[in-house]
Amino acid sequence: MSWLTNISQILMVVVILLIPYFIWTFIRRSVRNYMELKEEELDLQRENNELLRRLNGLPAREHPDTEEDNEQSG
User: Fold this and answer.
1) Long-range contacts, 7-14 (Cβ 8 Å, 24+)
2) Which alpha helices (H) appear in the chain, and where do they start and end?
3) Is 10 contained in some domain?
4) Would you say 53 and 60 are in contact if contact means Cβ atoms under 8 Å apart?
5) Which domain does 39 fall in, by range?
6) pTM for this predicted structure
7) Per-residue model confidence as pLDDT tens digits over 24-67
C-alpha cells in the first residue's frame, strides 16, 4: 500500500509544480491577444482617419505616422 501513497505524493508534487506554468501561459497569451487587438485597433483608426481625409477632399498623406498627428490626436 505504500507504493500507492508514493504515487499519489508524486502526482501531487507534479500538479503543484505545473500550476505556475499554466498561470504563466494564460497571462502570456492574454497579454499577446491584448497587444494584437490594440495593434489592430490602431491600424483601423489610421485607416479611418485616411478615409475621413479623402471624404473631406484633403490629399492623402504619404506618412500618416508623424509627430504632427500625435500632437493633434492627443
Assistant:
1) none
2) 2-55, 67-73
3) yes
4) yes
5) 2-55
6) 0.57
7) 999 999 999 999 999 999 999 999 999 999 898 877 666 656 55
